[in-house]
Design goal:
This protein is 91% helix and 0% strand. It has 116 residues and is an all-alpha fold.
Amino acid sequence: MVNAFKYTKQLEEAGFSREQAEIQLQIMTEIVEGDLATKQDLQILGTALGRDSKTLESSLQQDIKTLETNLRHEMTSLDSNLRQDMKTLETNLKHEMTSLDSNLRQDMKSLEINIQ
């Protein structure tokens, strides 16, 4: 806070009238009290920011855990689907190979009969 008596005296010594010094003091007091932050204001702000920061950090950590859980679930689901698709493909290929083998054997028998 401004020392009013000291400030007024300094202004008077510099050539201000008593009335000018008091008006100058009044203006300075309004500026300091109205627009400038005090140490207490800064401490309150710091405490609030610290609290908000911790809340945000906690929220972000929870979001990351949720995202990780969801991604793990999706990866497991994809793995399961891929394994099923591979099994189906394997079964289809085996069936086609068996069919091709049967057709080939039949063609070979038919060719052998024709040759004799």
